[in-house]
Amino acid sequence: MKYDVELLSPVGDFECLKAAVQNGANSVYFGGSLFNARASATNFNFTELENVINYCALRNVKTHLTLNILIKDKEFKDAVLMARKAYELGIDALIVQDIGLASFLRKLFPDLPIHASTQMTIHNLEGVQELEKLGYSRAVLSRELSLPEIEFIAQNSNIEIETFIHGALCISYSGQCLFSSMVGGRSGNRGKCAQPCRLPYELIEEKSNSKKTSEQSIDKGYLISPKDLCSLEYIPNLIQAGVKCFKIEGRLKSPEYVATVTRIYRKYIDMFLNGSDYIIDENDVHELKQIFNRGGFSSGHLSSHANHDLICKEKPNNMGIYIGNVSNYNKLKGHIKILLNDDLSIGDTLNFENENTRYTVSELMNNNDNLISAKKR
Fold first, then answer.
1. Which residues 6+ apart lie within 8 Å of 352 measured at CB?
2. CB proximity list for 122: less than 8 A, separation 6 or greater
3. Which pTM was predicted?
4. Residue among 340, 325, 322 at smallest CA distance from 286
5. 160: part of which helix (H) or strand (E)?
6. Under CATH, which number does the domain 6-174+225-298 receive?
7. Which neighbouring-strand residues pair with 26?
8. FRET partner for 295 with CA separation of 20 to 30 A, picked from 59, 81, 89, 235?
9. How would DSSP label each residue in 118-145?
10. What is the tens place of the pLDDT at every residue in 265-291?
11. In sequence order, what are the residues at sequence separation of 6 or more whose Cβ sits closer than 8 angstroms to the Cβ of residue 157?
């Protein structure tokens, strides 16, 4: 059977755009200066938007503009203006959360594909069928679905299905979380999530009897901070399930991140489509971890079984990779001796357990104080 699969990469600025396109993305998604769920990303004004669309059109890469927040009445005209400008510039699709805005845009631009944002929390077949009635051409499914659920929806619907395959996960349902709004007045549905799930917490057990109530600390750390999703092992199953588009999360990430993740997923999508033996190279997984990981990766919710490895409570941001152990520290010279578990190069960034400071490697020397290139043994 021949499959038609699209790899969709995140773009936060023009350098990320070039990284995505030059490493094999079929399409890219990005925000304008307003009305997108990553307000803190660089995003693009109208002039930059034209450059982005032209750059991609010349290279046969599709462009998706995110209008994926809830729109207030007083903002409606400006949101439509942005959509109109993107349409005139040749955008390939709009990603929309607000049903009212989507309905209006469908009437205004009947030939422009509208994709239902994951912020709409579309998690079952009935939801997708309703989107079809409303004129959406694609549903970006909730990241909380398992592979069998995704397959059931894809096999029984008439619009395109898009799923996330790599990147950050939310502890709550996308589009339904009010945590940031409640504790900080910054709404995820308005593109301003403060990520309170990445903060440290303490788990308290309350015990009561007839005389008194006592509390006992059970656990502490970053207790609701999920590891990032890595679904390399699921790529063949997702393609066979009928998923049209694979989406990489990360509009706030660096060009290096976009390039690395896009290139590696491009490799494995092509590997399956070309009929090659689907074997995951651990060096590729290592490279994905090196560019960004939160205590390793997890399969998110793709498995039918409960994921008991979803959370990394030790650290909420990039963990990096284990490089080795410090065996000696010369205070007079300021030299640190490390027994390496992996290669180390000048320019690499290091941090040490129980420290928050990061250090950039400026020199590498052997026991005779000669400059060297450090390799693991």
1. 326
2. 116, 128, 131, 139, 140, 141, 142
3. 0.91
4. 322
5. strand 160-167
6. 3.20.20.380
7. none
8. 235
9. GGG---SHHHHHHHHHHT-SEEE--TT-
10. 999 999 999 999 999 999 999 999 999
11. 125, 128, 129, 132, 139
